[in-house]
Amino acid sequence: MYKAILEKAKHYEPETTRFLCDMIGHPSFSTKEKEVIDCIRAEMEKVGFDEVKVDGLGNVIGRIGHGARVIAFDAHIDTVYPGEMSLWKTDPFKAEVKDGMVIGRGSVDQESGMASMVTAARIIKDLNLNDKFSIYFTGTVMEEDCDGLCWQYLIKEEKLVPELVVITEPTNLNIYRGHRGRMEMMVHIKGLSCHGSAPERGDNAIYKISRIALEIEKLHDRLKHDDFLGKGSVAVTQVFFSSPSQCAVPDAASIQLDRRLTYGETKESAVMEVQEAARKAGYPDAVVEVLRYEEAAYTGLVYPTEKYFPTWVLPEDSHWLRTAEESYKEVLGRKPLVDKWTFSTNAVAIMGMHNIPCLGLGPGNEIYAHAPNEACPVEHLTQAAAFYAALVYELNQKIK
Hints:
The protein has 400 residues and is α+β, with helices and mostly antiparallel strands. It has ten helices and 22 strands. A six-stranded mixed sheet has the order 1-2-6-3-7-21, with helices on one face. Strands 10, 13, 14, 15 and 18 form a five-stranded antiparallel sheet that branches.
């Protein structure tokens, strides 16, 4: 059966590639994904999914199978902006297939995962690989702006609670079982404005926030390390201030922090560390704020959330992981590398918040995510599709 699965994936390779190119042709920045969602919905309907719908947040949800048990495959279909256009050798939204690569914005991060998922659904239907599961294929929105928000909505509002979710973010065809969490914070400090010609009359908020920033730099070196996920990190990423004029001492200042959380670190511990850094700088009155996301989806819905995205790790002895490794070896003929992502994914909500097991495999190499001349190997699309279908087959075989 595994040979037949791989042969089917290769048979559909031109269609998988064409579908990815179609999606790239619809720019789909966070909160602006409607056109690509319509494209995906049409493709799912053409393939013959048993159900296709778009939820209130704008996620497209396709289902095949009617089994009592539920699993899901997820691809976020929003992308970042192209950046400086002169760095691109091709138009980022006119996909090209050259030297075995699909080139364009979203080809790696991560519309390629959606293309392979839909092909996997074709294979599962063609070869009758599934009779135990209802399998959901989700094309999710707003991940680049707020990872996991889409799945908070799916779990809480759509009541979609699978036993397992396969994240199809790029892994270079390796199997990933976790990544660090993250959170976004602001540190605020007050000063006292005065005329810039006599700065001693005031209290310069920029000097104060600068001293706090230097303590944050030192904090980074002290953060916890985990043998699998690596070290926690913190970085000052933006600086803000307010002042009556350019000739006045600033009366308030803030810094924004990107905090990556390794295993064992929490929102509470991270906030306390920043508060302690401010105290060491001499400003115990500094205010530490965990930011919130309150942007409207393309549907118009606002679904607010705190910008705290917990760490998650699937245990090495998980039966889901063992089954994935077996499926990979059987269909692709080699042993997989099991590793982790450097960046964050929707699994921060699925497993980090809701403890639903996740694992990942996706086409493309994550080093090309958000980069100019983003490109995914065509053979990755085919092998990823074969793996997804093989995993479904193997899971069905294990259920008596």
